[in-house]
Specification:
This protein is mainly α. The chain has helices at 16-28, 33-52, 59-70, 77-90. The chain has one domain (15-92).
């Protein structure tokens, strides 16, 4: 027996001009308007999420980040204690 996929309904009010444009675009691609819109919206959502996950740094911040990687500051006392605890916990 095939698994059922849960769906949700989405409604939007759009201008008649936009409706006509979407209908024409779907026809050009030989798809239903629903399929065309769902695919376009899914692509846009994936793009927006992907963009949100990208960290953009100014040139100055890039240089600061690179410098911190190349010449890290000495470990703080708290970090040294954490490494000591880690060593004790992972010791055979």
């Amino acid at each position: 027996m095939p698994a059922t996929i849960a769906t949700a309904r989405l409604e939007a009010r759009i201008s008649t001009d936009l409706h006509s444009m979407l209908k024409r675009a779907a026809e050009i691609q030989g798809r239903t308007m629903t399929d065309f819109i769902v695919t376009a919206v899914q692509d846009a959502a994936q793009s927006a999420i992907g963009e949100a996950n990208v960290i953009r740094l100014s040139m100055a911040h890039q240089q600061c980040f690179a410098q911190a990687l190349l010449s890290p500051p000495p470990p703080s006392p708290a970090l040294e204690r954490a490494f000591a605890r880690r060593s004790k916990l992972l010791a055979p």
